[in-house]
Predict the 3D structure of the following.
Amino acid sequence: MATRILFDGDPGIDDAMALFFGLLHPELDFVGITTVFGNTTVEFATRNTLQILEAANRTDVPVVMGASHPLLKPLAPRWGRIHGADGLGNQSHLYPTPTTRPLDVAAATFIVETVMANPGEVTLVPVGRMTNLALALRLEPRIVENVKEVVVMGGAAFVPGNASPVAEANIREDAHASNIVFSAGWPLVMVGLDVTMKVPMTPAYINSIAEIGRPETDFIAKIAPFYQQAYAQFHNSDGTIYCHDAYALAYILNPGLFGITRVPVYVETEGLCAGFTVPDTRNRWESDSVEIGICTSVDADGVLDLYRDTLKG
Ligand code: BDR
Ligand code: CA
């Protein structure tokens, strides 16, 4: 039976690449997509999600617009440089304005109602700032016992961050929300930079995706170059990219491709280290942090084959 997933993201080029991958995989059943500020404004992220679903001919998937800013801190917009002003490498004008609309409901309410209506069945997949999930937890704490699993793209435990020396962007940009999500006590797996930066999509690999020649891969071929140029500029890469969000879906589809270190993790919320997902490797019973599964190793070729084979169909 397909895994029922509620995808919470900020498309976003790698979010879009994840969505096309997930929507095409027969073992994933999208029960909804909630959006959040992050790679772009929540308005653009929502519009992009609708555009992606139209391009993938999947307008059956409900979309809900979520948080426009962090829980406590003022919004510190950083969009533009990595994903383009529109979140899709400034290519969204190439696609028609979506004719579909988001549902008229709060994202936290949608998350709560979806989880509570399907006890033990829904896997939450936050691949953006954790704000919507934190609000859902505040609204209905019993979602903790009623989710199947929470698979987060975010965090950096044993490797450097990308938004600060120690913090990954999804965790740092709303560290208070991330702390709520990480300390909730639900079954949580972190697919963070510890593994996502070990799965490179080279220019040759991206070309091989573009050559597949279906609407989903044509879309990817249009948006990937902006992300490649950003990686070249900011990470000194040769156009190799890291498609973080897609790897969270790869974990759900085949957890055997990943190695897990299970330790308590604390999310720092303040100061220079805000957003650091601190692994407590002391293995001491008195740790007051909640144990989670951190993906620390990955079969990169296995993930890349899974991604490309799925897009080939
Ligand atoms: C994460 O941050 C966002 O910019 C990406 O979409 C990804 O979810 C990587 O740090
Ligand atoms: Ca994202």
Remarks:
- Residues 3-312 form a domain with the Inosine-uridine Nucleoside N-ribohydrolase; Chain A fold (CATH 3.90.245.10).
